[in-house]
Structures are given as structure tokens and as C-alpha cells.
Amino acid sequence: MQIIVDKLAVNYELKGNGRLVLLLHGWGDSLVTYSALMNYLSPRFQVVALDLPGFGGSEAAPEAWNLDNYCFFIAHFLDKLELSNPYAIIGHSNGGALAIRALSMECLRADKLILIAASGIRNGNHNKQLLIKAVAKTGKLTTFWLPKPSRQKLQRKLYGTIGSDMMAVPQLRETFKLTVKQDVQADAAKLKLPVLLIFAKHDPAIPYKDAITYHNLIPNSKLKEIDSSDHFIHHDQPDLVFKLIGEFL
Amino acid sequence: MNKLKIGVIFGSRSTEHDVSIITAIASIIKPINLTEEYEAVPIYIDKLGRWYCDPALADINLYTKDNIGNYLAKLRPVLLELNGGFNLIKPGLKDKKLKIDVIFPATHGTHGEDGELMGMLDLINVPYVGSEMPASVLSMDKSLAKIMAEFSGIPTSRFVFFYAKEFLNNQQAIMMRLKDLNFPLFVKPVHLGSSIAISRVTDNKALVNAIELAAHYDEKIIVEEAVNNLVEVTLPIMGNNELKPALLEQPLLKDEAFFDFNTKYMSGGKKGKNTKQGAQGYSKLPADLPKGLYKEAEEIALKVYRVLGLKGIARVDLLIDLKAKEVYFNEVNPLPGSLYAHNWQQAGTSSVSLISQLIKLAQERFEEKKELNTIFETNYLKQY
After folding, report:
1. Least confidently predicted of A132-141, A205-214, B6-15
2. Domain for residue B297, yes or no?
3. In whole angstroms, what is the distance from residue A33 CA to residue A26 CA?
4. Do A3 and B205 touch (CB under 8 A)?
5. B209–A80: do the CB atoms touch at under 8 Å?
6. What is the nearest CA distance from A223 to chain B, expressed in angstroms?
7. Which of B240, B339, B374, B379 has a CA between 20 and 30 Å from the CA of residue B104?
8. What is the pLDDT of residues B373-383, one digit of tens each?
9. Are A191 and A100 in contact (CB under 8 A)?
10. What pLDDT does residue B109 have?
11. pLDDT of residue B120
12. Chain A: nearest CA to B188, how far in angstroms?
């Protein structure tokens, strides 16, 4: 289904009846990431997932957005569908960072939060961030003399070595830069609701120490460590992850 | 033997830009190049409306691997010389001129299938595949096509159309006009194909949201009543004067869903592995209908084709109330995605034969039109 929110066409899926569960996908991903989880939850809950602007079947905003812009947008999206505040929010990766920020800013309210391999702790990757910034600035200077295709190829290579996420959606490069600047640790510390943290021990994208940091910051949090999984834990270990979610909700 | 140069125009400023690339490369250029008498010349219009012509533009990898931007940056857009046929000028140190013998439009939706391109081709006076401007305009405006059908005694579901501006300026007045229609309703932008921004709604709130969505893409919107006990079928038809139908095809729908863009193009629909019926894996081919109803649907589709003045090829979509045994005209596609080659194949026409027949029909039509007198000698100027 599509709907217009804040002048952007947004793709979404709404399924089931009961208390509302909002699903937020990560960077470069789409609501399709949650297809199996939606089927699992919809007999018990009303589940809504959207393609965030710029991803999947949703239009990108004309200007660069930070986490706050996305948070307000999600709130407007729920208003437009006349859905009440969600009972629970589930966020994967950047979707987790968004959920933390939205709850902290109180543009969304929920009774429970589940973070799957959530990003949002930025100082752990401080050197990487600095490098991204440097390349973003100097990349232009050092490659400006090349013909456009070669320039783009080289820039792509430079970015690729340090932040492949940025190039996953090239038109959202500026949004990506704004997003990775925003650390949500202070927001996480404000959360009072019960939070389930599902993190993979050997996640190549999110270091496991981020899970421990979140666990220490959020007073009412439970941490579940998954042994053999990539960053997409809900795909790699669906039975285990769905069971954990089902029990927590 | 000098091969006839067939200029395949695709892409363009349309929400169906990407679908057009697949139609052009897989269903037109590839079979053309398998023939002995024709040679395909890919003519790509990018999303900003710039025209390019280069043999490498026929390589699907350029588009699927996201390399098209880089590749186009190396090319210079082509120029079009209007005198003496369709001549492309490739700018360079010494300009190269390429004369195109027949145009095969492969553009879907706006700025292409909607008649704009056909108008230009008529003005240039070059043979081209498919319907001319008036039939394309009628077909690509769902409300005009339905009005034409109704006027000719062909049943259609009840509908109301209006302009997006009217809705934005006076929502209440439009909602009043829609009050006579019974839910569930379909809301559609009148000019868009591939099921883009089409919604099925069952209450007023969803109706308003769906109209907003349609208004995001088009200036004109149609709201139609749904048909009960629905079986949706579609019939590809070929011909100018003598018409040749392919097979009635019945898309397979999930639950209460309808055939939206995702179902058609994104969910593995056309390459779906889960259904055995239909060459594209998402439909029953031929449609599973009682013999009498099948015949009636075919006749109605052929009548629509004639009434709208379609030429070359088109696909007519019908809605059937299976219990009441009523057939309704839904809409028409003057350039079916991928030419519905899978359907023609099953009907006994190979892809190569299909494009060869379409090119011949284009040439025949061009010759036919030459017989029309466009010069009317008068002495008006002398009297002035």
C-alpha cells in the first residue's frame, strides 16, 4: 500500500488485529526485511512496517535528513493512518537508533522496545567517522581532475573501503553523513520502558561492545546474545529471534 | 542485404521508465537482432528526457548493475533531424547521421505511450509500430477510454473522474460526487500504467488517502466501483484492420489483493517459481472460463480495440462477474509490457515472428496513410 505523508509517497504494510507493533528497518533495507516477522506477529498484533523515505518503494525527501527528521516523519505516518501510539517498536540497525531517538524525543510513545543489532553508538567508530568525513571532503579535492566516470569510480572505491553503507543508496549520501553524526547514547539512557536487546556476538557491522553499552545505559533492558549470526539476525536465526520477541511481547 | 534499421525508443520521463527498459531490450531488441532483415538501433531517453543512441545501450547489465549514469556521462545526447524522415545526428568532430527506417516505440506511460511520441513520429512522417496519437491518447486516459466504451454500448463498471486540483480545492464537493458509488472502490491516476498508485479502498478515510496518492502522480483521477465475484482477464490483440487475438489470460491474485506494481514487477511475479500456469508464472493461460464467457470476453475486447481505433498491438483488460456472467471493459494498454510475448508464444507466435509482424503492420499502415490526401489546392491566397 502507498500513502502520502508530508508530500512523500510512502510504501507500507499493515497486517493483523490487536495492539500495534511498529517495525523499523535499517539503512539500505526495506520493509521486506520483516516479511516473516510480520507473518509471525500478525495473528496476535496489528503490525505496521513502512519503507522509510529513500528506501524500498518510498520516495526520498528532497533534502538531506537526520535521525530527527525521520522520527517526526514516522510519527506523521502513524497519525495519517490514524494509528494510536504503538504498544511495541522493533528496530533493526539504523531502525533501532531511530526508535531510541523517537522515544527519547517523545514523538513516539510505546510500552516496549526491541532493538535488533541497533546502531546509534557512534564514538565506538570514531576513527572510522573521521575517515569518512575526511574522504567526503578531500575525496572531491583529490579526484576533481579526473573525468566524471573515473572520479565516481575512485570515490566509490574510497568510500567502499570505509563505509560501504554510504554507497548503498548513493542519493542519500548526505542523509547518511547526517545520520552517522548522531549518537543516541544520551537518548538511550533516558528510556524507562522495558527493552529487549538482541545482538550478534560476531556482527561485522555493529561491534558487540555496543550491545553491552546499551545494556548498561538502559536500566530496564535485557540482553540476548546470538552466537552464529551476521548483522541480519532476524534472517539468520529467525526461529530464535521470533521466539525471543514473542516471549518479550 | 542491407538490413532495415529499426529504432527502438525506450526509457523516457515516466514512472514506468524501468519497465520500458525491460520491454525494449528483452522483448524487442533481442528478437529483432535474431532476424535477417532487421537491425535494432537502441534509442534511450533518460529520466531527464535526454536522447542517446549507442549499441551498448542494448545491454541490460548497464541498467541492472547501476552503470547507466557513468556510461551516459561518456556519451553525448543525439540530435534529431526532422526533414526527410527520422534521422539521428550523433555529434562529434564530424557529425554522424543515422537514418532510421521504422520506429518501434517501447516507452510506457507518460511522454511515450500516451501519444506524445506518436504525434511527433506522425509529424516527421516515419513508419512506427503501434497505435497513432488519437488512439494512444484515448487509451492512456482511463476515463476517456471508458466513456468511449460506454458510448459504444460496451459495459464498464460505474465510475467518476475529476481533476486533482478540484479535489485539493474542494474536497467536500468531490466526496459528494463519489457518494453514489458503492464500496469497495478502486482509485487510479487516469494516465499511469503498471498499476502505479492504484488503491482498493473500503471506507471514506482510505478513499481520501488513495485520492491524495493518485493526485501525487497525475492531474486527473478516476474512481471506479469494484466488480463482484471478480475474474480479471486480459487479451493481447494484434492487427490494423484484420485483428488477431492471442489468448485470454487470467492473472492470479492473492486473497483480496489486486495486481499492483509490486505484484507485477517486484515480487518475482513475472519470474515467479511457485505457479506452473502461464508462461510468466503468475497467471492462468488461457483463462479458465466457460466456453461461452470466454468467447464473449474475446468479442468485447476486439470491439474495444476497434472502437478506440487501435493499431499494431494492444492489450485489453476486462473484469468478469463470474456469477452474473457479465463482462466489463476495464482499461487498455496500447503498448503492453514486454509485448506480452509469453502469451503470444503460447498462442503460437514466437517473439521473432511477433516483432516481424508488428514491423510489417507499421509499414502497411504507413503506406495506407499515404493514400490520404493531405494537400487541398485552393485559390484562397490569390484572393487575399
Report:
1. A132-141
2. yes
3. 9
4. no
5. yes
6. 35
7. B374
8. 777 888 888 88
9. yes
10. 83
11. 95
12. 12
Of A9, A147, A148, nearest to B213 by CB-CB distance is A9
Q: DSSP 3-state assignment of A177?
A: helix
Residues of A in contact with B71 (CB under 8 A): 149
Same domain (yes/no): A150, A189? no
Rounded Cα distance between A99 and A112, Å, is 11
Residue B1 pLDDT level (bands cut at 50, 70, 90) = confident
Least confident of A56-65, B123-132, B164-173: A56-65
What does the alpha-carbon distance between residue A57 and residue B262 come to, in Å, rounded to a whole number? Answer: 9
DSSP-assigned letter for residue A171: G
With b for 16 or more beta-carbon neighbours within 10 A and e for fewer, the A130-164 pattern comes to eebeebbeebeeebeeeeeeebbeebbebbeebbe
Taking an 8 Å cut-off on Cβ atoms, the answer to whether A2 and B197 are in contact is: yes
How many Cα atoms are found within 13 Å in the side-chain-facing hemisphere of B238? 21
- Chain B residues inside the 8 Å CB shell of A57: 261-262, 266
With CA atoms as reference, report the closest residue to A165 among A94, A64, A73, A86: A94
Q: Which residues of B touch A1 (CB under 8 A)?
A: 199
Asked if residue B136 is part of any domain, the answer here is: no
- Is cis: bond before B31, omega within 30 of 0? no
Residue B248, burial from CB neighbour count under 10 angstroms (0-12, 13-18, 19+): buried
**C-beta of residue A55 within 8 angstroms of C-beta of residue A29:** yes
A30 and A109 assigned to the same domain: yes
Q: How many helices (H) and strands (E) does chain A have?
A: 11, 8
Q: What letter represents residue B286's amino acid?
A: P
C-alpha distance across the termini of chain A, in Å: 26
Alpha-carbon gap, residue A101 to A107, rounded angstroms: 9
- pLDDT tens column, A78-106: 999 999 899 999 999 999 999 999 999 99
One-letter amino acid of B281: G
- Chain B nearest C-alpha distance from A3 (Å): 6
Domain holding A45: CATH number?
A: 3.40.50.1820
Give the nearest chain A residue to B71 (CA atoms): A149
Say if residue B273 is in the same domain as residue B197: no
Whether residue B173 is found in the same domain as residue B289: no
Q: Is residue B305 a contact partner of residue B311, using CB atoms and an 8 Å limit?
A: no
Residues B97 and B117 in one domain: yes
Say what the pTM is.
Answer: 0.78
Same domain, B252 and B194: no
Residues B8 and B116 in one domain: yes
**Partners of residue A169 in chain B, C-beta under 8 Å:** none
Distance, in Å, from the CA atom of A193 to the CA atom of B384, rounded to the nearest integer, reads 89
- Domain residues for A30? 2-122+182-248
Are residues A160 and A224 located together in one domain of the fold?
A: no
Alpha-carbon span A1 to A241, nearest angstrom: 27
Q: What would the pLDDT profile of B21-78 be if each residue is shown by its tens digit?
A: 999 999 999 999 999 999 999 999 999 999 999 999 999 999 987 789 889 999 999 9
Of A161, A176, A191, which residue constitutes the final position of a domain? A176
What are the b/e assignments for B143-168, b being 16+ CB within 10 Å?
bbbbebbeeeebebbebbbbebeebe
The C-alpha atoms of residue A65 and residue B238 are separated, in whole angstroms, by 50
| Total domain count, chain A | 2
ipTM: 0.71
The CA-based dihedral angle spanning residues B126, B129, B135, B136, taken in that order and rounded to the nearest 10 degrees = -100
- Please give the mean pLDDT across all residues of chain B: 90
